[in-house]
Each structure stands twice: as structure tokens, then as C-alpha cells.
From TrEMBL:
<protein>
    <recommendedName>
        <fullName>Tet-like 2OG-Fe(II) oxygenase domain-containing protein</fullName>
    </recommendedName>
</protein>
<dbReference type="InterPro" id="IPR046798">
    <property type="entry name" value="2OG-FeII_Oxy_6"/>
</dbReference>
<feature type="domain" description="Tet-like 2OG-Fe(II) oxygenase">
    <location>
        <begin position="220"/>
        <end position="410"/>
    </location>
</feature>
<dbReference type="Pfam" id="PF20515">
    <property type="entry name" value="2OG-FeII_Oxy_6"/>
</dbReference>
Amino acid sequence: MSCKLIFPAFTAQFLSSAPTAHLDEGSVDVERSLSAEGLVDVQSPLSSATIPDLVEELSDNQSFLSSAPTAHLDEGSVDVERSLPAEGLVDAQSFIRRFLGIPDAFVHPVSKTGSAQYVEAVKSLQVKKNQPVSSSDPEFPYRETLWIHEPGWHYGPWDTLDPVTLKEYKNSIETMMAASCCTPSINNNGSQNLKLEDRISGARIMAPLGETLTKSTSIHAKNGSMHALGWHTTVGEKNKDIVYYTVKSSSNRIVEKFSGLLPGLEQVQDSYSQGLSSLLPSAHHKMMNEAIRLDSPSFACLHLFYDTADPSGGICNMNFPNSLTITRSNFSNFSHRDSDATDIAYGWWWAAQLLDQNDWVLDDEVDHDLIEGGEFLIADFHTGVQFAKCKGLVEIFWRGEVDEHCTLQSSSPSHVTRFGTSIQITAKGVRAVERWKKAGGSQDRVTTAQERIDNAVLRLQKRKRAT
């Protein structure tokens, strides 16, 4: 089965049953639709015009709302009921049930009070340990974290999905799992590289309490693997402005596999668009508007074009987030903020089984409970998604550029992994597009997915001749 859920600074859903509602301080948090602070503020462009009026009848200086699950954190405590009168919780649940026509709702009052100390504790611990943190570490502020796992209303168990949606979602997941096997692991992602006295996405790393940072040594801990599809700025490729992520050139089978999955990326794009528009309509609307405004080429777009006679024209036939990242194999990273062109990030998480050395498959017997740890933590809100208690597909929306977040360490059987993904409009990708346009938009300054394939084939042929 699968389920959805929502959080203060992010939204998560488990395709399963009952919704989870969460109350954010002075903000309207529409579960499966809103996040906290600015995103769900009544004045925010992401808020719904009809929600404040509806909520006003129920809230008393605290606006709250949620439609499927929303997770939020309480003031430094897991005692989520102490910050809101009992009648407020009852009113919130009653409202959500009536508004959505759902029998069950979970309400979690949250506050950002004490977030600075919490973030400092997490970041100090990761520096002290020289690696991403683990929720099982005795020094991790486990009791100060609100762990969310309740399923929220969205589609229901896998077997209750309509046949068309079920097929589309599973096809999209299979495409992404295949992509993780035929693309190289990304080794220069900032969230997996911790440098003393450096900044990660604009946030200074905190030294362990009572200690002073005296050198700028790289504390480099690799946990799991990250892969990507889409468009990014060139790295060491001469006379290029914007390029598609590359393919492994380890074997003809791998290259053929990559070539074969490319036509399926448009389905992946459609699945993510459908998922976010259902989870958080206002965020989806903003994301699509930003993609058009920034002329962001979709990760599913395989060709770019530019008409110098019409410089205001688009460069692709699909504007969407330019980056799709895929993680697996007990991936974890340091608490960080992203360097994106927008504050919208959205992703899917699911468990899968290893079929052979290069193939992962969905299996009804394999779920998140087989994997220990790996929680998705939003440090600014002391809140985390406890995947081990979730079922099936988990969808999360969060403000990657705004809030401190990370994936905690995990361990799993050798034949099982948890996949994690995200779609984002990256700042570097946007700058690459701008640079390419200013240079005249020549196709010679672009490396497409097909050119990646052609280059990989040439390398394999050269390698074969050399032997």
C-alpha cells in the first residue's frame, strides 16, 4: 500500500488511509497542501483564498487547517497537545473531517520555538561525528523530535488505486529505479560533503559545543548513492553551457538500458506533476509558473532550441523542474539548505528489492519496516518522517531552500533499499540556461542525452579495440 502526509515546513503523504492535520503557529496549514511559516501564511501566494475564511470560525489567534496528513512540531516536546487547548484540537479534527469527508484526522500543533538550539545540536553532532547523524545515536535529540508516520488520505492502498494511475505510478517508479543503475553516482553534492568553516547552502556549520574550528579540513562521509536525470551546468566540459546528466559507459547493456528508459521520463514528469498538484495544489501552481518564468527545461525534455529572432521564446517543449535526483543504498546526508531557484521541492520514497546486480523491483513483501532509520528530518521544526512505520509510497513536499533538512543514517538487508527522490529547479541550472542564451543559443554549446549515449558507445568501442 502507499500513503501520504504533511509537515510544517514540508508536506508528506502516504498513499494509504486517514489524513493527518497539523497546526502551525499563525499559519494556515492545509495538510497535503501546505507547509508552515511563509508557505502557509494567509498572506502567502501559496495559501488558498477560501481557506482563511473557513478556518477563522475555528481558530482563536491560531489558524489551522489540513486536508490529508500534515506533520508539525511542538515546542521542544513530543507532547503535541499541550500547546493547544483540547477544544481547539477537537474543532480542528471536526473541521478537517467535514471539509474532506474523511472519518479520521490527526492534529499536531507545532511551533518553531527553540529551533535554533535544535538545529545547532544536530549540526554540532554531525561535525563531531564526521558523518551524517543517526536517530539511534544517544546524543541525537530524539525526544525533542516530533516523529510523524500516520497515513494520510490521498489515494488509498495500492490495490485500491484505479488501474490507470496504478500502472502509471509503477511505470514511473520502475523508470527511476532503472536510471539509478545506469547513471554514475554524484560525488560533488554539497549535502554529502561537510567542510569545517565552509557554508552548506548558505548555512554555517556549527562546531561541537565548547570547541573551536581551527582548520578547514574536509569531513567527507559518503553514505549511499545519489543519481540524477536532467539538465545542469557544465563541469569541466569546454565550450558547453548546459548539459544533460551522463550515463555510465561500463557496458553496452547499461547504455542500452539508459537509452531505453528516456522515452519513459515524460510519464515520470506527469506522475510527479499529478502527485504534487494533488498533494499541494498551490505549490504545484507556483512551481509551474516559476518553471515557465525561468524557462527551466524539464528533466524529461531531451532537446533544447533557441531562436535568436525571438529571445523571449521558450527553449523547450516542456517547462518543469530541470533536476530529478534519485537516492538509494542507505543514502544519508548532512543537514543543509538547498541552493535552488525556488523554495519548492517534492519527492517520492519507496522500498524495493534487488533482483540482480543492476535491477531493482517493487515487491509486496518488501516495505519500509525492513529498513532501520533513514528518517527525513526537518531540523528547523524538530520534525521527521519516520519511514519505518510508513507503508508503500511516501510523498513529501518541503521548502528545500528555506529549511534545514537531511536524511538520517539507515541500515537495511543487502537485497533491500529505500529509494528517495526529489524534483527541483536548481539555481545552477537556471544560470546555465541564461548563459547559453547570452552566448547565442548554439546547439554546439549543449550536450543532449542522445549525445551522452553516443559518447558512451564511442568509449566502449575504443575500449574494446584497445583490448
